[in-house]
Amino acid sequence: MQLIQPQVIHDVIAAGISAGADFVDVFVERTFNDGMVFKNSRVEDSQSGTLFGIGIRLIHDEQALYGYTNSTDREELLRITNLLGARINGKGKDLTLNFEKLSYPKIPTMLDKEVDAKYKLSYLKNIDERLRKDSKVSQVMLNFTKKKQLIEVYNSEGLFATEERPYIRLFHHLVMKDGNLQTEAFYGPGAIGGWEFIEKLNTEEVCENLLKQATTTLYASPCPAGKMPVVIDNGFGGVIFHEACGHLLETTSVEKKASVFWNKMGEQIAHSAVTALDDGTIAGAWGSLSIDDEGMPTQRTTLIENGILKNFISDRLGELKTGHKRTGSARRQSYKYAPASRMRNTFIQSGEYELAELIGAVPNGIYAKKMGGGSVDPSTGQFNFSVQEAYLIEDGKITKPVKGATLIGTGPDIMSKISMVGKDLQLMAGMCGSVSGSIPTTVGQPPIKVDEILVGGQA
Q1: pLDDT tens-digit map of 364-386
Q2: What is residue 172's predicted lDDT score, i.e. its pLDDT?
Q3: Are residues 47 and 359 in contact, defined by beta-carbon separation less than 8 angstroms?
Q4: How many CB atoms lie within 10 A of CB 313?
Q5: CA angle 36, 40, 44 (to 5 degrees)
Q6: Comparing C-alpha atoms, which of 278, 395, 259, 372 is closest to residue 330?
Q7: CA-wise closest residue to 201 among 135, 279, 126
Q8: How far apart, in Å, are the Cα atoms of 119 and each of 42, 111, 357, 409?
Q9: Per-10-residue mean pLDDT for the chain, 459 residues long?
Q10: pLDDT of residue 110
Q11: Is 237 within 8 Å of 422 (Cβ atoms)?
Q12: What is the 3-state secondary structure (H, E, C) of the chain?
């Protein structure tokens, strides 16, 4: 069953073209949300609900106008379209549409299994009890979130596309104290799928790793500061590439020439050891899509190949403004946002080295086992990221744990100094905020060796 009558959409799009738009698209969304926050060994919050709305976009030349509403009423939708169209200085024309439903390959997902609230509560309670067996754990916070997004996309080229997207994520966060010492640990796996993804997690292993990480960092020595080689481990280590380089390859930055890479197509922007991709087609991955929010089938996009810039991340407006072809990367948080070029599953591709070889190639430096949060200036790629779990490397061997480490640099600089890339690629779920809201994205990489980076520390 369609979310709205096609004839209503036909009239809305025809009104936009009649007002002078070159292109009109309509995004219809119904999202079912379900979430639970478990804190202080009890349910602190439990929410469920439905979000519904319609977004209308008119494009004329390189100008885009956007409006949205919760109403399916034809007159209200036409009123919004006419308000947008009044701001266009273009020549209107008549339009007759015959919508043709898009056929496209579906990205495999885990079954969208559902369980009742009692089962969810029992599952979270078991994790809480397991973590609290360690007497130094002072707080455990577990956040379960699940949603199913149904979308329909229509446009003035006759496209009609629809997709159902189930998302699920479980965020683990603990605080450990011993006297005046305190530390935190977190883990937040997510996927396209249902509760069966959560059930496949090895809960005992997850808890053991969180406790080991927290215990290690609790008693770690202050990290030394200065420029030095750093080995960054796989998984969430990819957040640096995402923030310090990935955003600079989105046409939302390129079209404004706000990216240092805007005119570097075909040039060397990274070490020859680096090949990086943005892939929306990975089965079950948190950032995967079968179609983007403009109705274009998603794809696997090589961004950097052996250090050479090969592609940008582009949507319809990005292609219009920059000439860089669309990559199935138009994304938005909800109908309240116009689509923009955004990352999906973005990662550095596997290389040829074992982790031990990377460590052995560092006389003295830092092993960043787990990355934390940070900040980046998208116009320059200047970043500052904390390291959640770090160790000294001395004479090519991992020695004692250190805390308080930060990695400071710029995207272009760090990309040129990744001289060795490991074999063990791992992806991690995250949320990415930008001009079209907060969306599910995946970061990732194998272990990498950065020849030199500024390390901020307390020692």
Answers
A1: 999 999 998 887 887 777 899 99
A2: 97
A3: no
A4: 30
A5: 30
A6: 278
A7: 126
A8: 14, 18, 45, 46
A9: 92 96 98 96 95 98 97 98 94 88 86 85 96 97 96 97 96 97 96 92 96 96 96 94 93 93 96 97 96 97 98 98 98 98 98 98 97 80 91 97 95 94 97 96 97 90
A10: 64
A11: no
A12: CCCCCHHHHHHHHHHHHHCCCCEEEEEEEEEEEEEEEEECCEEEEEEEEEEEEEEEEEEECCEEEEEEECCCCHHHHHHHHHHHHCCCCCCCCCCCCCCEECCCCCCCCCCCCCCCHHHHHHHHHHHHHHHCCCCCEEEEEEEEEEEEEEEEEEECCCEEEEEEEEEEEEEEEEEEEECCEEEEEEECCEEECCHHHHHCCCHHHHHHHHHHHHHHHHCCEECCCEEEEEEECCHHHHHHHHHHCHHHHEHHHHCCCCCCCCCCCCCECCCCCCCEEEECCCCCCCCCCCECCCCCECCEEEEEECCEECCCECCHHHHHHHCCCCCCCEECCCCCCCCEECCCEEEECCCCECHHHHHHCCCEEEEEEEEEEEEEECCCCEEEEEEEEEEEEECCEEEEEEECCEEEEEHHHHHHCEEEEECCCEEEEEEEEECCEEEEEEEEECCEEEEEEEEECCC
Q: Is the pTM of this model over 0.90?
A: yes
Q: What is the mean pLDDT of the chain?
A: 95
List the structure tokens of 363: 């006389």
Nearest to 441 by CA among 231, 327, 286, 237: 286
Report yes or no: 419 and 273 within 8 Å, Cβ to Cβ. yes
